[in-house]
Amino acid sequence: MVDAVPLRPPLTVLRVVVTAPPTPAITADKPKKELIVLVGGYGTGPDSQVFDAFRARVAQENVYEVVRFGHDLGSYDTFGGVDANADQLRDSIRSVSGSYDGVHIVTHSMGGVVADRAFARGLSASDGVTTYVAWASPHDGSRAAQAMQATLTLSGPGRDDTRAFTTAYFRDPDSDAVRDLARARAVAPPSGVVRLDLRLATDALVMGADARDPGVPSRVLLPTSIGELEGHGGILQSEQALDLTLATIKTRSVPPDRRGGLLLAASAVVSQTVDGYAHVVLGGVCTLCLIGGVGGLLRRTFRRAVPWPPVGE
Predict the structure, then answer these.
(1) Domain assignment of residue 60, yes or no
(2) The whole model's pTM is what?
(3) For residues 96 and 30, is the Cβ–Cβ distance under 8 A?
(4) Is residue 285 part of a domain?
(5) Structural domain range at position 76
(6) What is the pLDDT of residue 266?
(7) What is the tens place of the pLDDT at every residue in 73-101?
(8) Is the pLDDT assigned to residue 64 strictly greater than 90?
(9) What order of strands is seen across the sheet that includes strand 103-108?
(10) Is residue 205 within 8 Å of 279, Cβ to Cβ?
């Protein structure tokens, strides 16, 4: 009997038996960046450079992505109603927050009121927001906006003329944003979100009473350069404000206030003094706008009563 010749399995079968499957490469997930959302103030357009100094500082870090609300993220009508803008801010943050390890909000002027309303209308720490720093924000309403609204009311039948005069020389005193700023009131700070308010003592547009924000740590800073003397816009260049803001974002806590009693007292005195002068200047501006509006009304009335140019010409 002839011994049976052992059968050799096909090469393809043998290859399956003896070849181990490739080991999947193990790659560590890259850590997510953190998002900083900048919210500008009244009248800031898409090409505004108000946050340039802050963006330059943040660019030195490698863990943050910075976007401007209304330019890089969402839609923002800075002359429009505050609540509509607040809803846009809330929904825009919610739409992207899952891609980041944390969201930080930094605002200037009216932007702080928009952020306040966004939190009042549902934005929260559960949406990934960890810190919120407001610069020169009228959390408790703008006295300037209230004064301009009162001036329009006093104009009576010359309201349209007063509005036209004020818009020509200053800003529109009766936009949706101005009306909302006049009515704004401070809201409770959001739970779980680190909050800090910053304001320069020389800010004549957002006064101490405007910036009232119960329950929120605040700092009134003295200017340290010529550019900071105009306090409302100067805070955008303030090294103190930039340092405190970045420290709050990095540590997710409010930095301790290491200023001595003398500096604190000086800040309070300067702020109160500037507020006093600001009230006088604001009264003068409102009087000027009222006179300009009444003058416009008289001119219109006179032109209707008398043909123009005169018949004799």
Answers:
(1) yes
(2) 0.86
(3) no
(4) yes
(5) 31-305
(6) 96
(7) 999 999 999 999 999 999 999 999 999 99
(8) yes
(9) 64-68, 34-39, 103-108, 129-135, 194-200, 218-221
(10) no
Q: Which of 101, 123, 114 is nearest to 35 (CA)?
A: 101
Residue 47 lies in a domain: yes
The count of domains in the chain is 1
CB atoms within 10 A of CB 131: 23
Q: How far is CA 223 from CA 194, 202, 204, 245, 288, in A?
A: 25, 7, 13, 16, 30
Counting Cβ atoms within 10 Å, is residue 172 exposed (0-12), middle (13-18) or buried (19+)?
A: middle
User: Does 74 map to a domain?
Assistant: yes
Residue entry with tokens 């009228």: 138
Q: How far apart are CA 295 and CA 310, in angstroms?
A: 20
Q: What is the pLDDT of residues 125-182, one digit of tens each?
A: 999 999 999 999 999 999 999 999 999 999 999 899 999 999 998 889 999 999 999 9
In CATH, what number is assigned to the domain containing residue 228? 3.40.50.1820
CB 200 within 8 A of CB 223: yes
Q: Which two tokens stand for residue 190?
A: 């959001």
Cis before 307 (ω within 30): no
